Amino acid sequence: MSAKTSESPVRLAAETWESLFRAQVAVMRRLQAGPAFRTLALNEYDVLFTLSRCPSGWLRQNELNDHVLLSQSSLSRLVERLEKRGLVERMPAPDDGRGVLVRLTEAGRDLQKQIGREHVRDIATLVGPALTPAEQQELLRLTEKLRASVTAR
Amino acid sequence: MSAKTSESPVRLAAETWESLFRAQVAVMRRLQAGPAFRTLALNEYDVLFTLSRCPSGWLRQNELNDHVLLSQSSLSRLVERLEKRGLVERMPAPDDGRGVLVRLTEAGRDLQKQIGREHVRDIATLVGPALTPAEQQELLRLTEKLRASVTAR
DNA sequence: GATCGATAGATGCAAACGCATATACATCGG
DNA sequence: CCGATGTATATGCGTTTGCATCTATCGATC
């Protein structure tokens, strides 16, 4: 424990966030350089990924919006683009006349799987050598705890 | 240690990154909602912040580019906008006729400090209650180790 | 010191973005 | 039921973004 990071709780929190953010930038830079993002932008892949993890298949557009770092209007148009490319389909929500449900098409699911595999390989070569498995487990636990706490409020 | 996350090294690395990324999105969402980003977009603040941390004051534009998640052309124009707003100034690099040096103006330094203070408060209220000080220290250590490893190659 | 590949930064252009707002539907109090 | 208030999505519009490309300079080789 260095003197620097124990000066004050506020300072520690700020430095922790700063470090987390920089790590994210560094990893993301490398990932974006790979060929996986040639055909699909990060946010577009992220939407396909989120949909692929959804048990029922269908997801409300506003729920999608919680996972992605995009404004509501941008997500609306992003989904529109994905629909035009035949990667997702939309239907009106049966229980809410305002809502729209989104799900992957067969082509969308295939593309997500294909890019996902590449993506996972890239991540493994970046993160694997950086941290021991025990450290990765701990990092996973801490970031999950942070995310849960932040989204709770 | 759950069975799920110990299936394979590749899977563990992918899940760790996924969790880190989601935490970053969740925190960033909250930060962007605050009034601190009303006057300055995230990337613009990030540039001012990076410049404020630079010992000599002057920083090469291409070095700036390593810290920010932006293409070279976008950063070029971003700095141009900051210059027009009187927040930074540019000068040709004395030792390299191709290069450009950037530094904060007085107004830029003031604005960075002002937004930085707000920013730090927001972070403290998000991260502080989420993790114990010891956990924050550990998260700081792990993300710094990850960043160092990734940027090394 | 001329040539050639590599690097730093700027710029044209189309695509994507966020903000403000419009529209349609839900929900609640009377 | 009806109006008021709130929520889900779409759209107009100005701004920002990335890609491709251009110019200028660097550094190495001969």
TrEMBL record, chains A, B:
SUPFAM superfamilies: Winged helix' DNA-binding domain. InterPro entries: HTH_MarR-typ (IPR000835), MarR/SlyA-like (IPR039422), Tscrpt_reg_MarR-type_CS (IPR023187), WH-like_DNA-bd_sf (IPR036388), WH_DNA-bd_sf (IPR036390). The keyword Transcription regulation applies. Gene3D superfamilies: Winged helix-like DNA-binding domain superfamily/Winged helix DNA-binding domain. It comes from the Bacteria. Residues 13-148 form the HTH marR-type domain. Keywords: DNA-binding, Transcription, Transcription regulation. GO terms for molecular function: DNA binding. This is DNA-binding MarR family transcriptional regulator. It comes from Arthrobacter ginsengisoli. The lineage of its organism: Bacteria, Bacillati, Actinomycetota, Actinomycetes, Micrococcales.
